[in-house]
């Protein structure tokens, strides 16, 4: 983990108190912490940094996290294709990440990609902003993203059919600013960052994947600046009671606090409804992007991800 990130970090377990973490570094090279620990003087908690990866997800630390499909090799391979299919020269590649990146205006300050998976959007943001941080609670995803960051390349076994795979290598374009990107393991519901740390935040296809979607929005709102800030949320709104209780969904129900469509409800929350996300945002645009996930050579999922772009 880059040492430049240290100033932004707080203990996720002590939130809403924002207590800075103390770094004990046992291996560092060129401003990159290889091994060490980040400890909280408030609760005494200790978050390891291993092989360059900072583990700031309290659930991972306490080993209470149930196994997730996002930790499996086939799913990592699917996401590497989804994020970097264009770089692999695949004519079927999705253009969704370029579309989402085009919705965030360039500027000074750092960008946070919440649920960054294998990193494409954060890399895109590093081209237009001072710094980009991707967080995800999948260790396998963050490991893959960091391998791309550190080595500039990563082998991927694309499933062809059954057990047959085709080896390809993702090579990041030389002009991408890997010195301006970092990926850490963290929880979208307890972001380990100080309030107002980011000029922009993105939530791409994660709002329907967390047990408390409103808490996810509150955290995205907290860590984003009060002024001159941007927020992009895009989601297919595939609400599922395997992920969150229907009463906690932000849409997709006929009754309840968030009856109706997720995008409408989220736009209203951003605009100041019930004063839950303050200061209020101005909704600057809404639309959708076609996002694709490849399972094998003959099987793709085509997903309409509906976005709202907000500014304040
Ligand atoms: C459907 S994927 C979308 C990934 C990426 N944003 C994209 O659009 O390609 C959902 C992502 O959210 C991550 N995720 C789910 N719950 C999370 C949580 N509580 N904290 C952080 N990441 C989470 C998953 O590991 C996965 O990377």
Element order: H for helix, E for strand: EEEEHHHEHEHEEEEHEHEE
CATH architecture classification name of the largest domain: 3-Layer(aba) Sandwich
Number of helices: 7
What is the domain tally? 2
Query: Could you say what the CATH topology of the largest domain is called?
Result: Rossmann fold
Oligomer: single chain
Tell me the strand percentage band: 25-35%
Structural class: alpha/beta
Bound molecules: S-adenosylmethionine
Outline the biggest β-sheet. 7 strands, mixed
Detailed description of the structure:
By secondary structure, the chain is of the alpha/beta class. The chain folds into 2 domains: 1-54, no CATH class; 68-311, Rossmann fold (3-Layer(aba) Sandwich). The chain is 20% helix and 30% strand. The chain is built from 7 helices and 13 strands. The strands form 3 sheets. It has a 7-stranded mixed β-sheet with strand order 9-6-5-10-11-13-12, sandwiched between helices. Strands 1-2-3-4 form a 4-stranded antiparallel β-sheet. Strand 2 and strand 3 (46-50) form a beta hairpin. The longest helix is centred in the middle third of the chain and has 13 residues, at 139-151. The chain is globular. The mean pLDDT is 96. S-adenosylmethionine is lined by residues 70, 82, 115, 117, 136-138, 141, 187-189, 204-206, 209-210.
Give a quick set of tags describing it.
312 residues, alpha/beta, Rossmann fold, 2 domains, seven-stranded mixed beta sheet, four-stranded antiparallel beta sheet, 13 strands, 30% strand, globular, binds S-adenosylmethionine
């Amino acid at each position: 983990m880059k040492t430049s990130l240290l100033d932004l970090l707080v203990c996720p377990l002590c939130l809403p108190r924002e207590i800075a973490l103390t770094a004990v570094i046992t291996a560092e090279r060129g401003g990159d912490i290889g091994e060490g620990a980040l400890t909280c003087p408030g609760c005494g908690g200790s978050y390891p940094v291993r092989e360059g990866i900072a583990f700031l997800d309290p659930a991972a630390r306490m080993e209470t996290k149930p196994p997730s499909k996002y930790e499996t090799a086939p799913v990592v391979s699917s996401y590497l294709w989804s994020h970097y299919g264009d770089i692999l020269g695949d004519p079927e590649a999705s253009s969704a990440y370029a579309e989402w990146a085009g919705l965030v205006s360039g500027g000074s300050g750092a960008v946070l990609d919440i649920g960054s998976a294998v990193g494409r959007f954060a890399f895109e943001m590093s081209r237009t902003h001072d710094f980009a941080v991707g967080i995800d609670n999948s260790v396998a995803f963050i490991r893959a993203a960091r391998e791309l960051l550190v080595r500039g390349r990563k082998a991927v076994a694309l499933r062809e059919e059954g057990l047959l795979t085709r080896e390809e290598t993702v090579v990041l374009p030389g002009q991408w600013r890997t010195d301006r990107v970092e990926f850490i393991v963290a929880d979208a519901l307890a972001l380990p960052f100080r309030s107002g740390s980011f000029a922009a935040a993105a939530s791409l296809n994660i709002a329907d994947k967390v047990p408390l979607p409103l808490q996810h929005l509150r955290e995205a709102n907290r860590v984003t600046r009060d002024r001159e800030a941007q927020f992009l949320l895009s989601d297919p709104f595939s609400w599922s009671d395997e992920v969150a209780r229907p009463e906690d969904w932000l849409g997709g129900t006929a009754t309840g606090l968030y009856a109706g469509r997720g995008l409408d409800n989220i736009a209203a929350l951003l605009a100041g409804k019930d004063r839950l996300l303050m200061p209020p945002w101005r909704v600057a645009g809404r639309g959708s992007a076609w996002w694709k996930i490849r399972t094998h050579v003959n099987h793709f999922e085509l997903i309409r991800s509906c976005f709202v772009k907000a500014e304040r």
